[in-house]
């Protein structure tokens, strides 16, 4: 049975703060070893705990590679042991030089999920692709993505 | 559905934008996003209670989807600049 990590992050300020540190120190910093690009974190605004609510819990971006990363964490009661991801464009489409090709990960944080997430992020920062994903699952991209500020996707 | 205006978008107007978006979806698309829209509305309401959200250099990007559905079937709210979801003026 999967072990949940930081399962009470939605209710506890202390746990939420520790969770943010976990993403930075245990997941992101390890992945950065695979990158030679100049990544910055956070990329997206960090709101207070109740407004942010794990959505996203972590973000990073690199201007020189036009690439972003956004992680949305769900509480266990909402997602079981869920783990999913897709690639989308942020701030424009593939033809917009300012747009970022962004890996979005939606997860419940378990001990087993965190291993896969680390692998996905390592691949993303290293080559900008989801290698394991493309080998095993149908990739979901928003090729016809339009930069809608309130949107329902994919179209 | 985009907005861009001199004044911050009010929460009331944001809810109207969501309604407009919902009206553009098919019944199936809407059914797939029922929880996502509810959460988007809650975020707007919570932001309104807090006096709105202000961008100080980093954009806001929120993603919601329905449990049990493909998570890439979703509702997104992105705020790139300025302020949004402010309460109506008295």
Write up what this structure looks like.
The complex is a heterodimer of chains A (155) and B (90). By secondary structure, chain A is an alpha+beta fold. Chain A contains 5 helices and 5 strands, in the order ααββαββααβ. Chain A has a 4-stranded mixed beta sheet. The longest helix of chain A is centred in the first third of the chain and has 20 residues, at 13-32. The relative contact order of chain A is 0.17. Mean pLDDT of chain A is 85; it is low at 133-148. Chain B is an alpha+beta fold and 90 residues long. Chain B has one domain. Chain B has helices at residues 11-24, 27-31, 34-49, and strands spanning 9-10, 53-54, 60-65, 74-79, 83-86. Classes of the chains: A alpha+beta (155), B alpha+beta (90). The A-B interface holds A 42-48, 50-51, 55-56, 59, 70, 72, 78-79, 82, 84, 86, 90-91, 104, 106, 140, 147-154 and B 1-3, 14, 17-18, 21, 25, 29, 33, 36, 40, 43, 46-47, 50, 53, 55-56, 58-65, 67, 70-80.
Strand order of the largest sheet of chain B: 1-5-2
The largest beta-sheet of chain A arranges its strands as: 1-2-4-3
Q: Major sheet of chain A: size, sense and barrel closure?
A: 4 strands, mixed
* Number of discrete domains of chain B: 1
Q: What's the rounded overall pLDDT mean of chain B?
A: 92
Structural class of chain B: alpha+beta
Structural shape of chain B: globular
Question: What class do helices, strands and sheet pairing of chain A give?
Answer: alpha+beta
The helical percent of chain B reads 25-40%
Domains of chain A, number: 1
Oligomer: heterodimer
Order of helices and strands of chain A: HHEEHEEHHE
Taking Cα atoms only, what radius of gyration of chain B do you get, to the nearest Å?
13 Å
Chain-averaged pLDDT of chain A? 85
Distance between the termini of chain A: 36 Å
Number-wise, the strands of chain B total 5
- Taken as a percent bin, the fraction of beta residues of chain B is 15-25%
The radius of gyration over CA of chain A amounts to 15 Å
